[in-house]
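Next up, a chain.

===
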Amino acid sequence: MARQLEEQIVGRFPVGRRLRVLDVGMGRGAQALRLARAGHHVTGVEQDAAMIATAREALAGQPEGIRERMRIIEGQAGDTGVHFLPGSFDVVLCHGVLMDVEEPDALLAGVARMLAHGGLLSLLVRNDDAPAMRPGLSGDWAGALAGFRTAAYGLKRLTSTLAGIGAPLHTWYGVRVFTDTAADDAPLPHDLDALLAVEERAGRTDPYRGVAALLHLCGVRG
């Protein structure tokens, strides 16, 4: 996903431009910190105290220049309008947040308002078009059958939502096409580079990306 995001940033903004980045629901701050290291000014919003502590600890170990380019705000994803003016950011990340809220369309609209004209919106969402894949590949047949009955908040609906909030879909990728059944604490494989190359290729290739566990959607503020 980080490679996909970098591809979109490089293709949209002049090389060397220091972007204003908002990471809504930044978690432990991995993406935010990576972008701060790349020279961008990053603001992370997170409500989980433990994750904020982890992010601040990671930031504290960075050189002063990186620390100065990143700030962390404790708050909910839906409160961006409380903290920032519309159009304040060139790039807005909202990764892994929509699946945990009751009204994702309303949250998306608020997040999109933070984008300047031509700004990039990066979303990471669960692929509700293929909810039976993971339990099926794991041999959980009851779970797979239940997945077929899940109401889809998938690509079609998200495409419509993004168009309606003024940040129409520019491109999309699949994430975790072949590796979703791996345990969270599984050790890194010795052939990690090959694994990443395969995942990156599958994430941009039909029909594989359509059954990925997650979708990475990139919209552009019109």
Q: What stands out?
A: The chain has a mean pLDDT of 94. The beta strands are 20-24, 41-46, 70-74, 89-95, 115-126, 169-175, 214-220. Residues 46 and 74 are 5 Å apart (CA to CA).
